[in-house]
Amino acid sequence: MKKLPLLMAWMFAVSAGTGLAGWSASVKLAERTSVRVAILETLVSGQGKPNDEVRFELREDLYGPNREVLAVKGTPAFGHIIRTSRRGMFGRSGKLEFSCDSVKAVDDTKIPLRGTEIKSGKGNGGAAIATALVVSVLGVFINGRDVKVEKGTEFTVYVNEDTLIDPGKSPMTKAGGSETDTYSISVSPSVCKDIAQKAAAGLNASAQSPVVVAISDFELRAEKDSMKLDAAVAHNVCEDMSIALGGISGITVVDHAAWAAAAKGVGIESGNAVDGEKASQAGSMVGAAFVMAGSISDRGDVIVINTRILDVKDKGKTVWTLSTETPKH
């Protein structure tokens, strides 16, 4: 029987017995690692409803133990509203509870997040993170007033569990990198029709109580940071929504070109999030009572469309919301 050279025998033993342990490219991001995020929209108690999406972004690169970049500054993070109620009589304070649930790593792994450094034992940490996020900014709920968390407010959240990430599988394009590739997805007109019908019901529109609505191009959120959704996706959804809403008795839809010009004039950029106060200004310019805005998110197997109706006379306050999930074909 021939003997294998010592080095070859050792290599064989390692690959057969241990699977080349230690040679893996994956890096462990430890539970309780702090993560700095900023909220990308203004939240006010009493606006929106439980499970509505809340958007954040990573405020700094997230590093591994050997300074590997595991998540890139500017990467979107997502949470949701847990509870929201307006101030009540006799000085009862408004209440606002929300979470920051996850952020994507450079290899597209979802990093779970929570609001406290120590686990609270409350399921996935949703209730705990809500308290941490609100109290860290306001100290306590403000008596006799609605709670307002301004866009851009920063929070420290924490990794909820050990997460393996391969820093070698980072996207081709990062912040400051080369031009991002674009791609397209399709949203069925029937989905837009269903949203339009529910929106009309929410506004109590009828021939006896007509309303004028302007529709803004929805914000686009691609599945990966290295890609960008084609602007035509937002334009197509806007057109289908306009046709659907315009066909409902009691609703008049503002000409989109007129809205686009007014929106541009007040600083609303097509395909980006719509600020309520700016929407109110633009809506007044075109004679709209309400503005429909929202977002289209590519979540891999599904497309999520979040729709909001903003009241022009009430500084763009959100008066109706709907989250719709449809399969991606």
Structural classification: alpha+beta
Structure annotation, total helices: 6
Shape verdict:
globular
Biggest sheet overview: 6 strands, antiparallel, barrel
Percent of residues in helices: 10-25%
N-to-C series of helices and strands: HEEEEEEEEEEHEEEEHEEEHEHHEEE
Radius of gyration over all CA atoms, rounded? 24 Å
Q: What does the average pLDDT come to?
A: 79
How much β-strand is present in the residues? 25-35%
Question: What would you call the quaternary organization?
Answer: single chain
Low-confidence stretches: 1-24, 121-132, 134-144, 172-179
Major β-sheet strand ordering: 2-4-7-9-10-12
How many strand units?
21
How far is the N terminus from the C terminus?
59 Å
Protein architecture, described:
23% of the residues lie in helices and 31% in strands. Helix 3 packs across helix 4 (231-246). Residues 1-24, 121-132, 134-144 and 172-179 have low confidence and may be disordered. A hairpin with a 5-residue loop joins strand 20 and strand 21 (317-327). The strands form six sheets. Strands 2-4-7-9-10-12 form a six-stranded antiparallel β-barrel. It is α+β, with helices and mostly antiparallel strands. It is globular. It has helices spanning 6-17, 126-138, 189-202, 231-246, 256-265, 276-285, and strands at 27-29, 34-39, 43-44, 53-58, 62-63, 69-71, 76-85, 95-98, 102-104, 110-114, 148-149, 154-159, 163-165, 181-183, 211-215, 219-221, 227-229, 251-253, 290-298, 302-311, 317-327. The longest helix has 16 residues, at 231-246.
